[in-house]
Design goal:
Blueprint: H1 2-14, E1 24-32, E2 35-46, E3 49-55, E4 61-63, E5 65-70, E6 73-82, E7 85-95, E8 99-106, E9 109-120
Antiparallel strand pairs: 1-2, 1-9, 2-3, 3-4, 5-6, 6-7, 7-8, 8-9
C-alpha cells in the first residue's frame, strides 16, 4: 500500500516534467492553393494551460484562446477578424524539441503544417 502511494506521488510530481516544452517563438509556412503563407506563434506554458499569440497577416498579434497542453500535444484556437466577420481556426500540435507539427481546421476542412523554434523562452 505504501509503495503504491509513493509511486502515485512520484508520478504526480513528475508529470509536469513530461509536458511539452513550447515556451518561445515558432515560425513556418502554410501551403494553400493560393500560395504559401508565413505563420508565427509565441507560446507560454503554465502547467497544462497554454497562452500566447499568433502573428496575423497584418503583423498584429492575435491572442490564442482555450489553450491546453496534454503531454507533448497542444490545443488552442484563434479568432481572426475579416472586416467585422469573425473566423475561427482551431489547432492541434505535436511538439518535439525543435518542431511542432500541426493539424488545423477552418470551415470544417483540415490542413497540416509545421513550425520550428526560432527563440526559446
Amino acid at each position: 500500500m505504501r509503495v503504491a502511494a509513493l509511486l502515485c506521488t512520484v508520478m504526480l510530481v513528475a508529470a509536469p516534467a513530461f509536458a511539452a516544452d513550447v515556451d518561445g517563438d515558432w515560425s513556418g509556412t502554410v501551403s494553400t492553393p493560393m500560395g504559401d503563407f508565413p505563420v508565427a506563434f509565441t507560446f507560454k506554458a503554465d502547467g497544462d494551460t497554454l497562452t500566447g499569440s499568433m502573428l496575423g497577416m497584418d503583423g498584429m498579434k492575435i491572442p490564442i484562446k482555450d489553450g491546453k497542453i496534454e503531454g507533448n500535444t497542444i490545443y488552442f484556437a484563434v479568432t481572426l477578424d475579416f472586416g467585422g466577420m469573425p473566423f475561427d481556426l482551431s489547432y492541434k500540435g505535436t511538439v518535439s524539441p525543435t518542431e511542432i507539427t500541426f493539424v488545423g481546421e477552418a470551415f470544417g476542412m483540415p490542413f497540416e503544417f509545421s513550425v520550428t523554434r526560432t527563440t526559446a523562452k
